[in-house]
Amino acid sequence: MDNPNSRRSRLLGIARQTRDQYLPKLSTTVSSLTAPVSAPQYDNFGRLILPPTTQIILFPTYTRANVYDNDRRPHTYDVHVHGWVSSPGTMSRKNRLLVSLARQVIKSNSPALPDLDQNYGSDSDAASVSSSSTTYSETDDIIKQRLADFMARSIAGATLEVTIGSVNPEDEVKQITLETDGNGHFKATVSVPYPPSIIRVEATNDQRIFAFQEPWIVANDWSTLGVISDIDDTIKMTGVVGDKRELLRRVLCGNLDDWRLDSMIEWYRRFGSNCSFHYVSNSPWQLLPIIQEYFDRTQLPPGSFHLKQYTGNIIASLMEPSMSRKRHSLEQIISDFDQKSFICIGDSGEHDLEAYVDAAKQFPTQISAIYIRFVEHSLSDVDDDRIFKEVSRMVGNHNKAVGESRARRRGETEFIHDGISYPVSNPQPQSHPPATPDPQDVDLIDLDTPVKPPKPSALKGTPLKPKKPQHLQGNEIERDLPPPLPMRPTAPPQTPPSVQQPVGFAAKTNDEIIDEYYFMELEETDKRGAQWLLRIRAAIAKLRGSDTKLRLFKDSDPDFFRECDKALVKEKAHVQQLLKHHPTNLRLTREERVRLGL
Questions:
Q1: C-alpha 118 chain-centroid distance
Q2: Residues with Cβ within 8 Å of residue 519, at least 6 apart in sequence
Q3: Measuring CA to CA, which residue among 151, 530, 594 is closest to residue 368?
Q4: Where in the chain is the domain with CATH 2.60.40.10?
Q5: 3-state DSSP call for residue 225?
Q6: What pTM was computed for the model?
Q7: What's domain 220-408+517-597's superfamily in CATH?
Q8: Per residue in 310-337, pLDDT tens?
Q9: Residue 526: CB partners within 8 Å, gap ≥ 6?
């Protein structure tokens, strides 16, 4: 047995005493960091007591100015208020896992550390280690900064007072009281009879917790244009279609200069001050600070932002389908500004096409154009260019018809389509025979088949099917035998397609695909490409008869941006001409908008 007075016994005693004193403190500290939030506390009036670290964030919204009089002054203003109440998050188990995952992703994409065994100079070794350590430290700081709002604790049930200030200090300002929802968000529309000057939101039981912003006033009249735009992969390189690891790396620690899409940025800047921008994105609200920093750096036009609630998974939040969620924001913006015309801009990496087409069908006189930016590897599993050309061909006739219809209503004698000037034709009565098809429409039909004159109506029977191209015809079969089931092709045909077929899809008109053989082949070899053609065909069917143009474009196509710039200048000139005849009537019915070519 050890002597209690021995050196070893004394050391063991000190160790036990230190353990008994240190471990409870350590356990308490860890528990305080990882334990769930304590039960909420309330004051004597039943209001939630907010932590001293509580912050209120106001999101960029718009204030609608409406009901004009003869002096073109609005009578009322509808102020949209939207914000979030939260407090900084603790290092809970979930948050620690989030930070750890982010670090692992970043390390897997960072260049490898230098091999110190191959560096013989001690000075250079120290410099390399110091440089690498500094780089990782800076990256770690960026990750923590961008994850801060994801780890923040939303405060539900907080009572807030919203005050809408007035430009005239003698006006009696309006105040309302509201509570935050389960996600810590609050939203309201406050109508005031005076020009608003400031939006102030503060906690009712702690005036030290407040936020304010200047309202962004947008007139609801047809003399200005509205632009509804996506953000990710439309004006900011995000990479939603690409590798998920690279997507997360770009979001959490990517350099803002690497997000730039210069051709889009320059295009948006050229729209001018007569346009209001509304950014509807699939990004969560927690990314708003870094998005605003990107906007400030690139000098993109300011506007209202319409993002989404965070679902607890960053990648899933960015990747999930956005059409249904965006539909509500689109409906609200377009209906709030029912006198405006809008241009909708998105990208091929998400379902912006369907969301915008549905909006155009719901508001047929307000969506003048839908522009979809091409994202690499989003159109096809095999050949993006092939599908891009086919899509461009399919929308050709539709856009041409829309351009001619607008020019006819405006009393113009010609219109521009794809850089070519066309005369405006007079609409033909229905009893007249159909006009000769455009060569671009018939160059995909078997031209070896002679065109027969129309049969008299008295002799007409069941319509005959058009003759199948010669190189696709098989051997004759007996009439009394049922035809054999067609075999799906398992490999591309040995005979190359005719040079008259641009990309191998025979079509009767530019917005149809009728050759089942080629489409079956595409479904076998390029499912994504086949799906895109079906999506475009469905979009054109919904837009048929509307006044909405549809266009897919590439950043490398200067003709597209040049054509859009000319169209914008022409549209502004048309509006100025109309203002001379309607200087005070800034509210028009749908019929008046159609008649005036708006």
A1: 49
A2: 505, 513, 530, 533
A3: 594
A4: 18-30+45-105+141-219
A5: strand
A6: 0.74
A7: HAD superfamily/HAD-like (3.40.50.1000)
A8: 766 666 666 666 667 789 999 999 999 9
A9: 380, 381, 382, 383, 387
